[in-house]
Amino acid sequence: MAIICRLSSTVCLFLFLSAEFLSLSLGDVGNAAHYDPPYIPTACYGSDVSQFPTSNMFGAAGERAWDNGASCGRQYLVRCISAALPTTCFPDKSIQIRIVDRALTSVSRPSVPGTTIVLSIAAFSAIANLSASSVNIEFQQ
Ligand SMILES: *[C@@H]1O[C@H](CO)[C@@H](O)[C@H](O)[C@H]1NC(C)=O
């Protein structure tokens, strides 16, 4: 890149911005399970269910995403990228979810322990077939 930058500062700026854009748009890769009601946001909001988005698009943070509680209220764009059964992911479906609880201590237990994010039934079934207990996801804040 240094050589190109010496030739033309315009090209240099373009390459820099492209790299920046790519790193922002790719997001992180992890996996997601789902959990059933009752949804009680114990770790983030106690029993105050007014924090749930009316869309019911929410989830509980796995330990990797929990961030010592700082993840409460964070919004993520989530998309299903692969699963054990190839037809599980709904192509080109992304959802925006809000973190309302910690998966490790959620009242309702995840379909699979130890995933990055545990999604509400509404959220999971918007991006993948609910008959799968977990899927691989791409997510970004
Ligand atoms: C979900 O998967 C089940 C079992 O593999 C299948 O019978 C069902 O048709 C699928 N539903 C959708 C919406 O793809």
UniProtKB/TrEMBL annotation:
InterPro entries: Expansin/allergen_DPBB_dom, RlpA-like_DPBB, RlpA-like_sf
Signal peptide residues on this chain, from the entry's feature table: 1-27
Residue ranges occupied by any Expansin-like EG45 domain in the UniProt entry: 41-141
Keywords: Signal
Keyword Signal: yes
Segments forming a coiled coil: none
Top-level division of the source organism's lineage: Eukaryota
Protein name: Expansin-like EG45 domain-containing protein
Species for this entry: Ficus carica
